[in-house]
Write a structure and sequence with these properties.
- By secondary structure, the chain is an alpha/beta fold.
- It has two domains: about 5-95 and about 175-315, 3-Layer(aba) Sandwich (Rossmann fold), CATH 3.40.50.300; about 105-175, no CATH class.
- The chain is built from eleven helices and twelve strands.
- The protein has helices at about 50-55, 85-90, 110-125, 130-140, 145-150, 160-170, 190-205, 220-225, 240-245, 250-260, 300-305; strands spanning about 5-20, 20-35, 40, 65-75, 75-80, 95-100, 180, 210-215, 225-230, 235-240, 310, 315.
- An eight-stranded mixed beta sheet has the order 6-7-8-3-9-10-12-11, with helices on both faces. The protein has a four-stranded antiparallel beta sheet with strand order 2-1-4-5.
- The longest helix has 18 residues, at about 190-205.
- It starts with a strand and ends in a 5-residue tail after the last strand.
Length: about 325
Amino acid sequence: MGQNEILNVKHLKTHFFTDEGVVRAVDDVSFTIRKGEALGLVGESGCGKSMTALSILRLVPNPPGKIVGGEILLRGRDLLTLEEKEMRSIRGKEISMIFQEPSTSMNPSFTIGNQMKEVMRYHQRKANNHIDKQVVDILKAVRIPDPDRVLSQYPHQMSGGMLQRVMIAMAISCEPSLLICDEPTTALDVSTQAQIIDLLRLLKAKRETSLLFITHDLGVLSWICDTAAVMYAGTIVEYSDIHTILLNPWHPYTKALIGSTPRLDQDADQLRVIRGQVPNLAHLPSGCRFHPRCEMAQEICRGEAPRLEERDPGHLIACYFA
């Protein structure tokens, strides 16, 4: 691993063994995240983004899911070789996760203060009075007004935007090296989305926290990410810096994603869509997984899957005709 590499995922495979067949939710996925870098993982719903994140934290429900191959290197240490007790010491301390819907990720029976302090007590083993002050400081850092009052509230007493701020505060409370953000702005209105993105950018800049930012919104991706990996049907099809992905995409799927994004200068009847549907991961098409929906597909695409290869420096594409 390079000196600044925080996370290096190599050929990760996570499959689900069901009555219908083997669901290849994550199938040979590789990427690297460096210190202070934000990597965006983008694609349609069901392409394997969230399952990649859960695999990194080893939270895949087993059965029926299982990580069947690959490596997940956190500063050179393979997380897949660790005992569960060792993984518990890493979750929340070295790698934290912000979930898509905070109201379902918090215990409605306990106050915000109790839930935040529990995380810090487990990982930091500090005196209660020190933790009390630290919790207030963290809530102030995520721009929550009147943090003393918030600590005594229950999750249902807070708005979605405020609850997402609390979730971010919990995630950064132990100063993790890597913060996984699983569509953290999807359930929020546009104004609150912008506030949460600005907050994450500030944390990234001040603390040099690395981010894995999962989204299907290319607009959000452009605000915060340095690099991007485009996923389709469990695999990465294009991987490069964010400017190349947005301004000079090569893969037909990336182009289709960008083309289907609404624009202010576009009439409703001009909106483009990606024809067809995401394939069933238990019954994948032969060859390139995108070929049934691709306008450029030829016979070779139907017979053999292209490999993810570097076509330009730092620009990887899995396509024969990109």
